[in-house]
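Figure 3 (text version): structure tokens given as input.
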């Protein structure tokens, strides 16, 4: 009797997890704010004093039609540093075409 009850609970949990995984999954990304601050110091030192910095950090190649890759990286680092939140959660949902599951797409972003 005890074994049947455990098997039933296991099956219920398994079905619940499969259902969750097929519809939505959450990834948590941890950010080291000390490293973000260090990279910002490197950018500011490069801009004000002309010190050396990695090419990928201060690249003058265009990211889009409005900003360079270096400006884009700087803006993203500033955003992360100003928020002072070490963890970000991203929700993904699996797309469905007719009866067949297809690719995963970013659903929304939450701050932990």
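Below: residues designed for each position.
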């Amino acid at each position: 009797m005890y074994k049947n009850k455990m098997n039933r609970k296991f099956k219920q949990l398994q079905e619940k997890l499969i259902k969750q995984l097929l519809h939505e999954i959450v990834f948590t990304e941890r950010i080291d704010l000390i490293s973000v601050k260090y990279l910002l110091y490197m950018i500011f030192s490069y801009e004000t004093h002309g010190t050396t910095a990695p090419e990928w950090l201060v690249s003058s190649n265009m990211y889009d039609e409005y900003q360079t890759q270096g400006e884009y990286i700087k803006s993203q680092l500033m955003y992360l540093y100003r928020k002072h939140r070490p963890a970000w959660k991203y929700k993904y949902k699996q797309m469905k075409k007719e009866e067949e599951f297809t690719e995963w797409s970013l659903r929304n972003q939450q701050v932990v």
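The beta strands are 24-30, 87-97, 100-111.
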